[in-house]
Fold this sequence. Notes:
Blueprint: E1 2-7, E2 10-15, H1 22-29, E3 48-51, E4 54-57, E5 70-72, H2 86-92, H3 102-115, H4 121-127, H5 138-156
Parallel strand pairs: 1-5
Antiparallel strand pairs: 1-2, 3-4, 3-5
Bound molecules: FE2/S2 (inorganic) cluster (2 copies).
The site of one FE2/S2 (inorganic) cluster has 12 residues, from loops.
Amino acid sequence: MEIRFYLNGKETVVNAPPERLLVDVLREDLHLTGTKRGCGEGECGTCTVLLNDKAVHSCMTMIAQVNGHRVITSEGVESDPRIAPIVPAFVNNMAIQCGYCTPGMVMSAAGLLLNNPDPTEDEIRTAISGNICRCSCYEQILRAIQQAAHDMKEAAK
Length: 157
Ligand code: FES
Ligand code: FES
């Protein structure tokens, strides 16, 4: 099946069986390896991407579901001015240790902040509750997302 979608702002066409998983198309066909395949069962969040600005697990998303839609992966964050401040906020708050969870955490943060620019601490914790950080950087990640929210509001002024 031919699938046409916007990936990190560019029109992209792939040929794949409709049930092939988005995470596999991204990593294996398009060589975008920022999106990780952890559990493969919707439990760890390492595969999180944005589908029409909402965070989804790409290991639970069939490629046919993105036909005609917009997908943003971690590779597309720095070139998207709406969400670019998230990456420096993670670095400045030392919210990265081994980095394995980071792309998924950044995408969950992006999905939250695009839809709720002024989240409470509880809303941030809920937004990343599906992302596991084995290094337990949760407090630094919380502060990074708070800083990103602040910086994104300043940038929008
Ligand atoms: S790999 Fe998708 S949630 Fe774990
Ligand atoms: S920084 Fe290592 S898993 Fe989160």
